[in-house]
Design a protein that fits this description.
By secondary structure, the protein is of the alpha/beta class. It has one domain: Rossmann fold (3-Layer(aba) Sandwich). About 35% of the residues lie in helices and about 30% in strands. The protein has eight helices and ten strands. The chain is globular.
């Protein structure tokens, strides 16, 4: 299998000498479902920013689909994010005054697709996450779990190679959260690489691979442990 993202001895140091990620190496293959798990301050949020090309490493190499992030201009990185990486956050970030369909269609604004095509693809994405019956509903008419599904549909409408989900169940009750995790499983089984950033060890334990972080370092990788 080919790596969708690979970090090689990556370090991220912020002004003041704070090292958030310290010499981390990890390889994530196409179609994997991975949890990056750790307590607050462990470096997992910085990992999200590095993997998602929202930030550049201080040292080492970040490769996204074989492309060296440090060698790319800001413009090329923005294009890479728009076409190849989807983001889902704990807070849903939906536009309050428009329908679920329009919220998802807006995920294609930077792809250059015409309006009719955006709406058709948005409809398919919402049907994919089980919300074909909620196309015209606005966010205030949706449950928390449904809002997160709309956010996931928006993230995958452009068919990205990689979906980064930052605490995707943090604002949900346990039943809705379990439904979102199951949906992420289905997306991974369909070929999308899904990386879940979480502090919740129980959620991480349900996923096929757990990369555990502490003090900016990887202290355990579940797949590596299982194959020894």
């Amino acid at each position: 299998m080919s790596a969708v993202v690979e970090l090689e001895e990556v370090t991220k140091t912020y002004p003041g000498g704070v090292t958030a990620v310290d010499a981390v190496s990890v390889r994530i293959e196409a179609g994997e479902l991975v949890a990056i798990v750790g307590p607050s301050g462990s470096g997992k949020s910085t990992m999200l920013h590095l993997i998602g090309t929202l930030d550049r490493p201080s040292g080492g190499t970040v490769l996204v689909e074989g492309r060296d992030v440090s060698r790319m201009s800001d413009r090329r990185l923005s294009a890479l994010r728009a076409r190849r990486i989807g983001f889902v956050f704990q807070q849903f970030h939906l536009a309050a005054g428009v329908s679920a369909l329009e919220n998802v269609a807006d995920g294609l604004l930077y792809a250059g697709a015409p309006p009719g095509q955006r709406r058709r693809r948005a409809r398919r994405a919402l049907e994919r996450v089980g919300l074909g019956h909620r196309l015209d509903h606005r966010p205030h008419q949706l449950s928390g779990g449904e809002k997160q599904r709309v956010a996931i549909a928006r993230a995958v409408v452009g068919e990205p190679a990689m979906l980064l989900a930052d605490e995707p169940t943090g604002a949900l009750d346990s039943v809705s959260g379990a439904g979102v995790i199951e949906l992420l499983r289905e997306l991974a089984s369909g070929g999308t690489t899904v990386i879940v950033i979480t502090h919740d060890r129980d959620i991480a334990a349900t996923l096929p691979r757990q990369v555990r972080m502490r003090d900016g370092r990887i202290v355990e990788d579940g797949v590596l442990e299982a194959t020894r």
